[in-house]
Amino acid sequence: MHADKREKNPQAAQDPLQRFFEGCTDCDICRFLMDESCLVFPEIYRRYDEALTKKQSLRADALRDVTDRCTLCGLCPCPDVRANVIQAKAARVQDEGIKPGARVLSDLQTFGRLGRIAPKALNALFSLPVVRRLFQKFFELHPQRTLPPLAAENFFSWAARRGLDRKPPAQAGTRRIAYFSGCTAAYLFPEVARAVTAVFQRFGLAVYVPPQECCGMPTVVEGDMARSLRRIRANMERLLGLAGEGFDIVCSCPTCGYFMKGILKENACLATGCTDSGRHGEASSPNYGASSLADDAFSALDPSERLRLADSVFDAGEYLARRLAEGGFPGPLRPLKGRWVYYAPCHQREQGIGTPYAKILRKIPGLQLELIGSSTDCCGMGGSLGYKKNFYDASMQLGASLIEKIRKAAPEAVVTDCLSCRLQFQHLLDLPVYHPMEVLAAALEG
Ligand code: SF4
Ligand code: SF4
């Protein structure tokens, strides 16, 4: 049915928003499926219904602003939606440029690297109310939000002091990990990346922290494709090289993991020039024209390398579960008391790896851990989108159901592997928030 539509309207095959709009208004499934967990679909259907009532036609380019509502959470059933939204965001940035707020919020890497010189001075400057107000005004940030401070010592500097920036030599019987920490852990929460390192070392794994760029997700969310592709290419080259040398590539950030394992892989096997014909069964089979995505926003990257990278990357929880299955814990677990909840973030769920952290943490004596959140719950932060003035209310709306569930459960702490969720929980809940690896590191201590 959709293919017929494209034949009648050749423009639809070229315009990603038109493809998205025509496909999803025709299908209609997400009118009901995604009415609470996404802000894009309700708005698309609202405008569509309004146009129908007024007997007006709705041109897709009038929907450009709707793409601002997409956080790339990954919850929608068809990957085409994400691919089309990414293309539409990129086209908009090409035409209109990127706003200063989007530029700053999507680039923690640059900010973190600049801050490495004098993080204390930078944090002191930003703690001045007048500077904060000016910053918020110029970059259109929401006044209720406070940007988290940069760590006094970022993870990369810490790792370099310990020689973890040098490749460990291959040794029979020892697995080597190339650890991809992600920018948020590196620059804002290095204690998380240090805990991941400590846990892996306790398991007898040789940890290497290679030079790394931002995974690309935050800049892709803002449509900044030129910057994204530069960074993705650099990571791809380095990580695939390391995988070729026998390193296991491990991510503790679910967003970096989902980006490399999911977003980059989606449609790769449809790309022009993909010779990996055996992978075609992995292509999404949406009901509106997968072939229209042969050249998605990542088509400048080698499609086979996209697929190989996806195959080479492990989520840290998934990786640890495998090591546990091989040989159990490296020592007794110290009991931890508490009635906590674990929230598996959207980008972790979308990796299709189950909930390895919940299974692992439940082995800690004394710890009562309840899983919280449904398969469509989202914290609403959307990476750094929740800091924007014009996204703050949307962020609250998206996260409302999950926050309510946590409040009702009344736990003593929240555990989640996503550091954006952590920022949202810290903003809305008066509870300690931990990464699962921090909890495990504490249980393995002593
Ligand atoms: S085409 Fe896919 S994403 Fe769009 S409404 Fe249907 S099921 Fe949802
Ligand atoms: S990726 Fe998430 S926010 Fe974007 S359209 Fe899909 S469900 Fe909505």
Indicate the radius of gyration in whole angstroms. 22 Å
Number of domains: 3
Determine the strand fraction and express it as a percent band.
5-15%
Q: Give, in spatial order, the strands making up the sheet with the most strands.
A: 2-1-3-4
What about the largest sheet? 4 strands, parallel
**N- and C-termini, Cα separation:** 63 Å
Small molecules (ligands, ions, cofactors) in the structure: iron/sulfur cluster
Taking all residues together, what is the mean pLDDT?
89
Helix percentage range = 40-55%
Helix segment count? Answer: 23
Content-based structural category: alpha/beta
- Principal-axes geometry comes out as globular
Low-confidence stretches: 1-12, 280-290
- DSSP strand count: 8
Layout of helices and strands:
Blueprint: H1 2-8, H2 10-14, H3 16-27, H4 29-33, H5 40-53, H6 79-96, H7 100-105, H8 108-115, H9 119-127, H10 129-139, H11 155-161, E1 176-180, H12 183-188, H13 190-202, E2 206-208, H14 217-221, H15 225-244, E3 248-251, H16 254-263, H17 303-312, E4 313-315, H18 316-327, E5 338-343, H19 346-349, H20 356-361, E6 367-372, H21 392-409, E7 413-416, H22 419-428, E8 433-434, H23 436-444
Parallel strand pairs: 1-2, 1-3, 3-4, 5-6, 5-7, 7-8
Helix pairs in contact: 3-6, 13-23, 15-17
The protein binds iron/sulfur cluster (SF4) (2 copies).
Describe the structure.
The chain has 446 residues and is of the alpha/beta class. It contains 23 helices and 8 strands. It has 3 domains: 2-76, no CATH class; 103-317, no CATH class; 329-444, 3-Layer(aba) Sandwich (Rossmann fold). Helices cover 50% and strands 7% of the residues. The strands form 2 sheets. A 4-stranded parallel beta sheet has the order 2-1-3-4, sandwiched between helices. The chain has a 4-stranded parallel beta sheet with strand order 6-5-7-8. Strand 7, helix 22 (419-428) and strand 8 form a beta-alpha-beta unit. The termini are far apart. One iron/sulfur cluster binds at residues 34, 38, 40, 70-76, 81-82, 85.
